[in-house]
Amino acid sequence: MALTVLLDLRLKPEALTGAPAMLRDILAGTRAFAGCLGVDVLVDSVDPAHVILMERWESVEADAAYREWRAGDGATELGSLLAVAPQLSMFETASDI
């Protein structure tokens, strides 16, 4: 079953100028990862330091493999941009509603 993942990021004010380039580089790897159906970047229209990554995955297993990769060989410097820890939420589409 497909999975939608929201990664809610709060960027440091001083990171706003460099964040787009770093996120582009990081997301190139995400988008190329097996099972990734796409990633959209949502920027708060009032607060540009509030960014949500909306990822779509073929399955829970594909997302889990990606998270494992990011925790190891695929680690990034994303944390250097963040004012607080990111919030991760995972959603499955309800087909009976």
UniProtKB/TrEMBL annotation:
Organism in which the protein naturally occurs: Cryobacterium psychrophilum
Pfam families reported in the protein's UniProt record: ABM (PF03992)
Molecular function per GO: monooxygenase activity
Assigned keywords, A-Z: Monooxygenase, Oxidoreductase
Gene3D superfamilies per the UniProt record, alphabetical: 3.30.70.100
Protein name: Antibiotic biosynthesis monooxygenase
Lineage: Bacteria, Bacillati, Actinomycetota, Actinomycetes, Micrococcales
